[in-house]
Structures are given as structure tokens and as C-alpha cells.
Amino acid sequence: MKRETPSRILKLGLPAGSLKEMTLALMKKAGYPFSVSSRSYVPVSSDPEIVARMFRSQEIPRYVATGHFDAGIAGQDMVVESGADVREVEAFAYARSGFGSVRWVLAVANDSPIRSVKDLQGKRIATEAVNLTRKFLAAKGVRAEIEFSWGATEAKVPELVDAVVELTETGSSLRAHGLRIVAEVMESVTVLMANRKAWADPWKRGKIEEIGMLLRGALVAESMVGLKMNVPKAKLKKVLGILPAMKRPTVSPLSDAAWVSLETVIEEREVRRLILKLKGAGAQGLVEYPLNKVIP
User: Fold this and answer.
1) What is the largest CA-CA distance in the chain?
2) If you average pLDDT over residues 120-127, what whole number do you get?
């Protein structure tokens, strides 16, 4: 059967490159699976109201600002770097290789005499984030020569430049290249952004807010699990005293009136610590299961 063309369409920009896999995985958990081949920049959505295109994160804020996309997902740092006038809707703590944020840092060689941002006055800096670096230095009252780097930025210190502004998650790559962090330029997460005209459209705004809410739920669920168990009524209070919970756990009757079924949502890291305590308190038939979304 041919699928009917919807009357309204949301144009969505998705990141290619380092954010691609994590973004597509979270979108799938949120209820928006996309089909995309390895060489295609045109992901096909299961939602007929969404038409998506895939571009580098650096380009998406500009395309959202100009209205080529109604909404897009990219790094917050790229919004600042591009200077794009967009509406940031939601921020999500995931990056290239996992959950959490990334940092743009100012780094120099370990034996460099540069100890503070002020010491960079008149110096030469290489970076892929020229505008971000320029804004940071201007706020510090420092003037320096900033050049765009096409890659291998860490290798340019100290022979070609005095310092670099580079993206890092753990700092291990900088340390491996013999570099020392002088200052943090910006901490960045991934953001869902909207075109301002699209945000003023009630239908598009509702659709964008729906995506944001479900993505948030999918991200929260990454660190949570569901836990079910059977508990004798006589020991319910003791078991409840052990369990941390977002809200009070759900307690349901069983066919045996002396027992109840208990279900809750907890941090996955807590399960290992709690299992033996729950068993010792009288819980039986414990079942741990993954979650797709947790909507507070």
C-alpha cells in the first residue's frame, strides 16, 4: 500500500561524522528510526512527517538559521563558532565517543613558558574553531594571531605555532603529544536547535518539542534499568527501605494474597549493589530489563 503524503513536513538536519552513530542510536530509541546507507546523506525516517538530510555538524547551525532546515542536531560549540541565530531547544550530554560533554581547551607544549591566557598576547594559535577562539581571547583582552588548522593540530606545537585550541574529551591525546592545558575555552554538549520562523509555527514547534522530549527520555534511559521482583507482604517495608526510586515503586497484588509484585526504575550502576540486599530482605524472582525511554 502506498503511504499517503502528509500535509505538514518538518525538515530536520542530522549530523554526519563523529556524532552520527550516537545520534541515530538515540533517535531510534526515541521512536524515530532512520534508514541510511553508508554512502548516503539522505536518511529515510519512519515518521512520514520528517524529511531529514545529513551534513557535518559544523554546517547544520547555519542551515537551520537560514531556513533550509526547520530543526537540527549539532554540537553547541558549532552554534557558537558559526554565530548562527537559532533557537536552542534542548541540550543533550553526549558527544563523539559516549555520554558527557567535550571541551575546547587552550594547550601549549609542556616546556612552554606560557602559563596563562595573558601570556598569549601577540602569539600564534592554530585551531579548527577560529571564531570560538577569537571570542574567547577578546573576552580576556588578549590579541593573538589565530590561524585555521585543517587537522593534526596538536603536531604544530611548538615548531609552527605557540599554542592550539583543540577539542578533547579526556585530554589523553593532548598529553600523548606532549601538550599541557592552560585554559578551558568552552564546554560543549549536543543540542537540538530550531529555526526561529519554524519555532513560531505551532505545528512545527510542537513537532520539534516532541522530538526533544523523546530524545531526552531516550538519553535518561541509557543510565537506567527497570527492576521487577516478587516480595512477601510481610517483608515489603524492608524491601522498600532498600530501593532508591524516581518515584515510589509500583506495588501490585499477586494471585497469592501473601505476596505482591514490585516494579521500579533505578540507576543501572545501583543494581549490582542492591541485588544481594534485596534477596536478603526477602525479594524473589528479580528481573532486570533495559528501557527505551524514561519521561519524568
Assistant:
1) 79
2) 96
DSSP one-letter code for 249: P
Q: Considering the domain boundaries, does residue 94 fall inside one?
A: yes
Q: Are residues 57 and 26 located together in one domain of the fold?
A: yes
Convert the pLDDT of each residue in 131-140 to its tens digit. 999 999 999 9
Same domain, yes or no: 82 and 56: yes
Three cell numbers at 49?
512527517
**Predicted confidence band of residue 1 (pLDDT cuts 50, 70, 90):** very low
pLDDT at 233 over 80: yes
Determine how β-strand 71-75 pairs with β-strand 10-15: parallel
Task: Please provide the DSSP assignment of 76-130 as one string.
Answer: HHHHHHHT---EEEEEE-B-SSSBS-EEEEEEEETT-S--SGGGGTT-EEEES-H
Give the cell for residue 292: 527505551
pLDDT confidence bin for 284, thresholds 50/70/90: very high
The secondary structure of residue 42, as a DSSP letter, is: -
Q: Do 281 and 230 belong together in one domain?
A: yes
Residue 97 CA to residue 215 CA, distance in Å, equals 18
- Dist. CA 90–CA 32, nearest whole Å: 17
267 in any annotated domain: yes
Which residues, including other chains, have CB under 8 Å from residue 22's CB and lie 6 or more apart?
Answer: 94, 95, 96, 98
pLDDT at residue 228, as a whole number: 96
